[in-house]
Design a protein that fits this description.
By secondary structure, the chain is α/β, with parallel strands linked by helices. The chain is built from 15 helices and 27 strands.
Length: 526
């Protein structure tokens, strides 16, 4: 086989992906399109203009050369705190093509979070958008060993300027399909993010098996995603999937709101819309007083948390468009259980994506019977290599036989569909993003009127999970609506905006074990 190519063996069931001995993922995702005649086709569309596949390939090479020119070597890591814009794609694939390992991270973090990520990753460089400069630079100030390269995306001496001066010719680094390609960070039960290490082959597997085959993306599509590029869901939706099939990416760096999505859909005219259940519910509420133009959309997709069947049905009735709900993870990179246009059931996550296997097991690791709840294990070629600097979590999650423990509790119904029952731990998923109850509790306890706090998830009127805080006060007489507003503001000042509690229960005591550990399952009604 020619270097940097992948062949789909249709004779196998499911179809098998065969990679060349030398394989750099930037070639099939970026350079291939010039060979296939898409040079003049629009690859990226934003409010500021359009980028062709030819310009995309040039900018990827220039960014790769710029990073190498700064002294970053193949195998080194570069942290990316970059908004959704063409430079995200340039920087990511430029690094990949140069053999550098890019690490896109959450842009909604605090200085201490960036301090942790810089130190944990041991990155040689960091690239960040001006919008996040205050938090990133404050985090850099606290780091013991600073990365040797610190670059703003724009401005004097920034990545954009350095790339403009760099060569547009870059030979792909001679990597293999199983070499480290990129990392994503996933939150853990301790509240500290975990570095999830992915291979070059992984985004090919998700893009082919889910993006092309299950979601049905094709070259004439324009794709728009609510989920941002740093998140594994948005990473596939708004970058790797459309680039794999030669489609057009619609990007916006605006904060997602129902009105924002309506405006961007009207401007970008996407045919495929990727959302999360919280946003679909909010959009339905917003439609009660408006009639947005969604006519361009042929299919909608949802993941990040379970989509309530009622939201799915109301959306289909209101818009005439189907939402395909699915289950994915950062560790498996994208969706591996999904509904399809031909086979869907409201309230379920669907069936395994071709190329993936799933099992439901009990506490002893034995398969449960159909209809019984078990922990969902998944096996597939897009599985991460390991958690960086976390051998214990790697061993607990990435099991023998290439099985991965998702931590999600499921059952398989009488029709064979998989139904989500929630997490097996205390993590809360809000708007498709994990948050730790410990982090929220720590912030609440900082308030002078709060003695103790315990946070769990609770469904709102649309069946979507949001944080609820159970509070023991120093003075029970302080309880009331005024204090609730005060505590919400207190949390919003220091936490990412999606993490604040939506409700407060003022209680006399919290349920605890004899060793003093809070029993959150009792607060959830378990």
């Amino acid at each position: 086989m020619r270097d940097n190519t992948v062949r789909v063996d249709e004779a196998a069931t499911p179809a098998r992906l065969v990679f060349s001995d030398v394989f750099n993922a930037a070639v099939p995702f970026i350079d291939r399109h010039l060979e296939e005649g898409r040079g003049d086709k629009t690859a990226i569309r934003t409010a500021d203009g359009e980028t062709s596949y030819r310009v995309l390939a040039e900018q990827v090479a220039r960014c790769g050369n710029a990073l190498l020119g700064e002294g970053i070597r193949p195998g080194d890591r570069v942290l990316m705190v970059v908004k959704d814009c063409p430079e995200f794609v340039y920087c990511f694939f430029g690094a990949v093509k140069a053999g550098i390992v890019p690490i896109p991270v959450n842009t909604m973090m605090r200085p201490q979070d960036y301090e942790f990520l810089i130190e944990d990753s041991g990155c040689a460089g960091i690239v960040y958008s001006r919008e996040w400069a205050e938090a990133v630079e404050a985090g850099l100030e606290s780091v013991g060993k600073k990365p040797s390269v610190v670059l703003l995306v724009d401005g004097e001496g920034g990545l954009r300027e350095k790339a403009a001066a760099a060569s547009a010719d870059l030979d792909p680094a001679p990597t293999t399909a199983m070499d480290d390609c990129f990392w994503l960070y996933s939150s853990g039960s301790t509240g500290n993010p975990k570095g999830v290490v992915h291979h070059h082959r992984d985004m090919v597997c998700t893009s082919e098996r889910y993006g092309r085959i299950v979601a049905g993306l094709r070259e004439d599509d324009t794709v728009f995603s609510v989920s941002k590029l740093f998140h594994s869901y948005g990473f596939g939706n708004a970058m790797t999937f459309p680039l794999w099939v030669g489609a057009t990416i619609g990007l916006s760096d605006r904060r997602p709101t129902p009105q924002m999505t309506f405006e961007e859909i009207a401007a970008l005219r996407p045919t495929v819309f990727f959302g999360v259940p919280t946003m679909y519910a909010q959009q339905l509420h917003a439609m009660e007083g408006a009639s947005p133009d969604l006519a361009s959309i042929r299919i909608c997709i949802s993941a990040g948390e379970a989509l309530p069947g009622d939201v799915m049905l109301r959306w289909k009735e209101r818009t005439g468009t189907l939402i395909l709900d699915g289950l994915g993870s950062t560790e498996m990179l994208h969706i591996f259980v999904s509904n399809t246009e031909e086979d869907w059931k409201p309230g379920s996550s669907g069936r395994p994506v071709p190329g993936y296997k799933v099992r439901l097991v009990d506490e002893d690791g034995k398969d449960v019977d159909r209809g019984e709840i078990g922990t969902l294990l998944v096996q597939g070629e897009s599985a991460a290599k390991l958690y960086w600097n976390n051998p214990e979590k790697t061993a607990a999650t990435m099991l023998g036989g290439d099985w991965l423990d998702t931590g999600d509790m499921y059952y398989q119904d009488e029709d064979g569909y998989f139904v989500n029952c929630g997490r097996g731990d205390d993590m809360i998923k809000v708007g498709g993003l994990w948050c730790s109850p410990f982090e929220i509790e720590a912030r609440l306890i900082e308030h002078p009127k709060v003695l103790e706090a315990a946070v769990v998830g609770r469904p709102d009127d649309d069946g979507l999970i949001k944080p609820v805080a159970n509070i023991v006060l120093n003075d029970a007489g302080d309880a009331g609506a005024a204090l609730e507003d005060e505590l919400k503001a207190h949390c919003r000042e220091a936490l990412a905006r999606y993490k604040y509690p939506r409700w407060f229960n003022f209680v006399d005591t919290l349920p605890k074990t004899v060793t003093g550990k809070i029993q959150r399952f009792r607060l959830r009604g378990g």
